[in-house]
């Protein structure tokens, strides 16, 4: 099994990065792994920590309509260049924590996605250089207030609510280019695709973004969602799975 890099909080509110072991214990690192954190002697037992989102990005840069069939289901053409938007760092949510259905919206949608974790300062990178800036891969759910997105004509409010970016459960360094992505709502499959169906590949996205803004170590890039997006209801449980990574699971609650 590939090494799984986690971020955790202990009962004393200390936060660590670490390596998840098969028995669910965590070997603590002395720094974030993309900053060359090394394992030490401290090992935390499974019942002694809470799993957090696997990084704390300064920003989450997301890409819209990066699967042709999703663009079609939205009634729009595939963009000629990556379509970028931002989700605030305050939208990031840990595995198993609740997605809060905001009172301002009447239609909240799931969007299962592959997320890239940036490992090094990245500005004006070529497509080839961008490959070396992607430190690892995790899972995201780009939760969206679809009615507000349509009403506003731009996406900041619809994408930016607290809890609207579940992320995790951990980071892996390598991923099969044809890994399957599936989203489940109450254990029913609602999205199914392989990540090689993206219009713009991960390194192309990172290079393109770096022409606009500097990506910092620990930043996250969401690579777009496949077809099958749909609405969530209060009481639902949504799970996004990516082959070779794992599963990201979150319930939906009212405020």
From TrEMBL:
On whether Lipid metabolism is a keyword of this UniProt record, the answer is no
Question: Tell me, what's a Pfam family for it?
Answer: FAA_hydrolase
Q: What's a single GO BP term from this record?
A: carboxylic acid metabolic process
What is the protein name given in its UniProt record? Fumarylacetoacetate hydrolase family protein
Keyword Cell membrane among record annotations: no
Residues in domain Rv2993c-like N-terminal?
4-54
Native organism is uncultured Synechococcales cyanobacterium
Enumerate the spans annotated as Fumarylacetoacetase-like C-terminal domain: 59-253
State the InterPro entries in the record.
Fumarylacetoacetase-like_C, Fumarylacetoacetase_C_sf, Rv2993c-like_N
- GO molecular function of the protein, one example? acetylpyruvate hydrolase activity
This protein's UniProt keywords? Hydrolase, Metal-binding
């Amino acid at each position: 099994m590939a090494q799984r890099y986690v971020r955790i909080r202990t009962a004393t509110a200390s936060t660590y990065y670490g390596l998840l072991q098969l028995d669910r214990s965590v070997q603590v690192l002395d720094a974030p792994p993309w900053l060359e954190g090394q394992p030490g002697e401290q090992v935390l037992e499974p019942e002694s920590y809470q799993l957090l989102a696997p990084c704390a990005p300064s920003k989450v840069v997301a890409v819209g309509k990066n699967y042709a069939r999703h663009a079609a289901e939205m009634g729009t053409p595939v963009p000629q260049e990556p379509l970028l938007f931002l989700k605030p760092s305050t939208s990031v949510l840990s595995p198993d924590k609740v997605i809060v259905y905001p009172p301002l919206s009447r239609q909240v949608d799931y969007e299962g996605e592959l997320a890239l974790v940036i490992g090094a300062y990245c500005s004006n990178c070529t497509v080839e250089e961008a490959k070396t800036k992607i430190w690892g891969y995790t899972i995201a759910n780009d939760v969206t207030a679809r009615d507000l997105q349509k009403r506003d004509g731009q996406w900041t409010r619809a994408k930016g609510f607290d809890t609207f970016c579940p992320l995790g459960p951990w980071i892996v360094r390598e991923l099969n280019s044809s890994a399957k992505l599936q989203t489940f709502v109450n254990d029913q499959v609602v999205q199914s695709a392989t990540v090689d169906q993206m219009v713009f590949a991960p390194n192309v996205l990172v290079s393109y973004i770096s022409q606009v803004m500097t990506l910092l170590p620990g930043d996250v890039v969401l690579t777009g969602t496949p077809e099958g997006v749909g609405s969530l209801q209060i009481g639902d449980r949504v799970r996004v799975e990516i082959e070779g990574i794992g599963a990201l699971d979150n319930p939906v609650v009212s405020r």
